[in-house]
Write a structure and sequence with these properties.
By secondary structure, the protein is of the alpha/beta class. The chain is built from 8 helices and 8 strands; from the N terminus they run αβββαβααβαβαβαβα.
């Protein structure tokens, strides 16, 4: 992993698009919540299904990182995931999306479970504790949600992909499923030892995606993790993995394939 790639990895989440206009759906709202765990306030984006107001049913919840890049071209760097545009097309959307804004210069701290000797970080457990102890209880109280792990997904890309995978391994009683796009396993190789030492429930599910043009370590590290999961007895039905020919480390890749991951994780 060279410095240029790391710079793009980090800076692409910090900068706002220039001269962009808001593209967020009317189904998207925001609120701010204090985090004692992180000693800050977090802006949270919420996507509610189009039939939410006219129904009494409860919904699964997907927690997603880097909310600035999920719904709105105005707040993203080089394009958005178009999560809301995709979900707006569905007549049977069964999920509430909770997007958590990244902490700008603290992003690498929040989204890495282990400290890197050169790049720092390592406060992923604190960030996940915020979700588990503060954000999720608020969401479950405020909205009609299905609260158990079977109906709670955590989803992200890059460092967010790394932490989403970690969350299901470390906290399976809270997070039953993970969307793992372009996971930065290279920055925290300790995660392989965690998987080796952990019993993974048959209820855990993972959707992996990576592009062939995301750097020389992306596909080999993902293949190594898949091999390890299989050796741990994780069933083929518990995971899906897609290698996208020519796919690059950017929102275009993740936006293009979000719908497929969403459908698989919710079937």
């Amino acid at each position: 992993m060279n410095f240029k790639y790391l710079y793009l990895l980090i800076s692409s989440f910090f900068l706002n698009a220039i001269n962009a206009q808001s593209t967020a759906s009317t189904q998207v709202t925001k609120f701010t919540i204090a985090s004692v765990e992180l000693d800050t306030s977090k802006t949270i984006w919420v996507y509610l299904p189009k039939d939410y107001e006219n129904s009494t049913k409860s919904y699964s919840v997907i927690y997603m990182h880097d909310a600035q890049n999920l719904f709105d071209a105005e707040t993203s760097y080089v394009g958005e995931w178009e999560v809301d545009e995709y979900l707006d097309t569905l007549s049977d959307n069964e999920s509430i999306i909770i997007g958590i804004e990244h902490g700008n210069e603290k992003r690498i701290d929040e989204l890495t479970p282990y400290k890197h000797i050169k790049y720092g970080g390592g406060k992923g457990d604190t960030y996940l504790t915020f979700i588990i102890n503060t954000l999720k209880p608020h969401v479950d109280k405020t909205y009609r949600t299905k609260t158990n792990a079977e109906h709670t997904t955590i989803f992200g890309a890059s460092l967010g992909g790394l932490l989403s995978f970690y969350a299901v391994i470390k906290f399976p009683e809270t997070f039953g499923k993970a969307g793992v796009f372009s996971p930065s396993f290279w920055i925290n190789p300790e995660i392989f030892n965690l998987v080796k030492a952990t019993s993974i429930p048959e209820t855990s599910k993972f959707y992996f995606l990576a592009g062939t043009d995301e750097g020389e370590t992306m596909i080999p590290k993902l293949d190594e993790m898949l091999k390890l999961l299989k050796s741990k007895g994780v069933l083929q039905t518990q995971f899906e993995s897609q290698n996208i020919e020519g796919g690059q480390h950017n929102e275009k890749l993740w936006a293009t394939h979000f719908g497929q991951a969403y459908q698989w994780l919710n079937k």
